[in-house]
Write a structure and sequence with these properties.
- The chain has 10 helices and 2 strands, in the order ααββαααααααα.
- It is mostly helical.
- The longest helix has 26 residues.
- The radius of gyration is 20 Å and the shape is elongated.
């Protein structure tokens, strides 16, 4: 392996150790190093997600991430509408206003968009959802890396989510978040992304 990768034994050993720590491979004296099946990978680990999103399963993974968002985020928006404090509502509004102000700056807009969604999750006051915070950040990083150009046309839906939360309208917040995610999914559907079984 060292010869094939043109790397020293120490570098390869350290890389395998990292992959084993993240659950991507198993290492044993009898069977050597083996890649674990993808169903056993932790796709909420930011490194694992970044590596997988750039590989041959990119398309399937991105749609799986959007599916996970659809399960969590509309419900989170509904809870935030019921439970957000005035300070949390201001944080959500501030993130939205930053998205509008930085729509032409991809890096800044990405950070503002991520802050918007994380602020909504925080406003649920649900400790179990709170433990999902890092996972949602990893998901948003992976999706926004390719879907951020869809932000500008999706700003009205972000505004609708914000307004529903401000008004304490749980059903409206859920519906607006679902429409927001529909736009992202439609954008992803139009991209030429590598799929499992395809080259490149």
């Amino acid at each position: 392996m060292e010869r094939r990768l043109d790397a020293s034994r120490g570098v390869v050993r350290e890389a395998v150790k990292i992959l084993a720590t993240k659950g991507l491979v198993t290492v044993g004296p009898r069977h050597g190093t083996r890649v674990r099946p993808t169903r056993a990978w932790n796709f909420l680990d930011q490194d694992v997600l970044a590596w997988a999103a750039g590989g041959p399963m990119a398309r399937e993974l991105l749609f799986a991430l959007e599916e996970a968002r659809r399960i969590v985020e509309p419900a989170a928006a509904a809870l935030a509408a019921q439970r957000a404090t005035p300070a949390e509502r201001r944080t959500i509004r501030g993130a939205y206003e930053a998205m509008v102000a930085t729509a032409d700056d991809m890096a800044a807009a990405t950070e503002a968009d991520k802050a918007f969604h994380i602020a909504i999750l925080d406003a649920t006051h649900n400790p179990v959802l709170g433990s999902f915070r890092n996972g949602l950040e990893a998901i948003l990083d992976a999706v926004f890396a390719v879907a951020i150009p869809a932000l500008a046309p999706n700003l009205p839906n972000h505004d609708a989510v914000l307004r529903a939360i401000d008004q304490g309208d749980a059903a409206g917040a859920r519906d607006a978040m679902e429409r927001l995610l529909d736009v992202t999914r439609t954008y992803l559907s139009g991209l030429a992304l590598p799929s499992e079984g395809q080259e490149g």
